[in-house]
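During the second year of the project, the team shifted from modelling isolated chains to modelling whole assemblies. The rationale, set out in the original proposal, was that interfaces cannot be judged from single-chain predictions alone. As a representative example for this report, we include one of the complexes processed in the last quarter. Its constituent sequences, exactly as entered into the pipeline, are reproduced here:
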Amino acid sequence: MDDQTRMMTGLTGLGGLPQADVDPDSVRKQQSLGQPQQDIGDILQQIMAITDESLDEAQARCWPEESPAHWGGSDDPTEGGRAGGGMAGGGLPLNFQHRKHALNCHRMKPALFSVLCEIKEKTVLSIRGVQEEDPPDPQIMRLDNMLLAEGVSGPEKGGGSAAAAAAAAAAGGSPTDSSIEHSDYRAKLAQIRQIYHSELEKYEQACSEFTNHVMNLLREQSRTRPISPKEIERMVAIIHRKFSSIQMQLKQSTCEAVMILRSRFLDARRKRRNFNKQATEVLNEYFYSHLSNPYPSEEAKEELAKKCGITVSQVSNWFGNKRIRYKKNIGKFQEEANLYAVKTAVDAANVSAQASQANSPATPNSGGYPAPCYTPDGRL
DNA sequence: TCGAATGATTCGCA
DNA sequence: TGCGAATCATTCGA
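Output from the structure prediction step:
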């Protein structure tokens, strides 16, 4: 339970002002007026008396003397080591002490406190409330996604090596071909990851410490001015926003570092390597068995990419190059075309035979047409 | 070393 | 956005 709550709950059921401050007029008023009216008049009178002195001045003189026990609900004005002297608390008049204490202990104070809080909620919060429900920043989301994809943020489950492996695959080489770049990339990415997490941890710690500090300050201040829990929450949210903007800078610079690393790694990829024989065979097989329509669908490209151990875009590049080069020099590719047409037909026949001599004969190409066989001049 | 082969990139177009 | 076409850059074999 925090101080303020303790103060509020502790005060319930107290008997009102202490004897020292109850003057005969008050008693008469209490007799002639209703109890609530007397309370309000009384408490306002107390406030007027206290506001003669500035809050800062009063606080400066009062805080050194205050102890949580004092605010805990006791109605003994002498509690807290102030008994037995005309002056207490660095020369603060005992009368002031009593008045302040009486005000804090007054049973109407919680109600007044909540009313003041409500007024604040309606004025201040209504102005600032608009900013509170900001949608998640798309830039942060992009940064988060990128860091996650690169394996920098999130659980370490070989993200870096996965990214490196993907890049290596994109290079078209076997994993061993690029093992040196791979391990280098992984080591540097791990370094970036370590720095990122270490900095993030520092920021989070600083944020947490600062938030606690501010919350404590506000709780302290809530003894002398109306500060609702909602207001404290709002303040915490403001702090978090400030710190998240710092975090965004960290994320940005981390992303930049990853991009630089990646571009360096990708530059290495530009060193073209020919696809291996088996991959070229698979691609050619598809190309010549679909010669009437050598445009693989996205699914087919994915399938081919998987079979060949290359990326979908490499498959697209290959088919793009193949189509244009085939078209430019059909004669030159004729032998190759015939070779694959025969191979496809033989494979199809084997599949057909294995399928228990099924009635529906398998066809070598997707369109249901026989594999094209060309004359050396390029005609069907 | 040179030329062919080949993967990647860029640009314009529909 | 996918394609054709041109071109670049690299690999490979004679």
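Chain A has a mean pLDDT of 66. Residues 109-126+135-151+186-271 of chain A form one domain.
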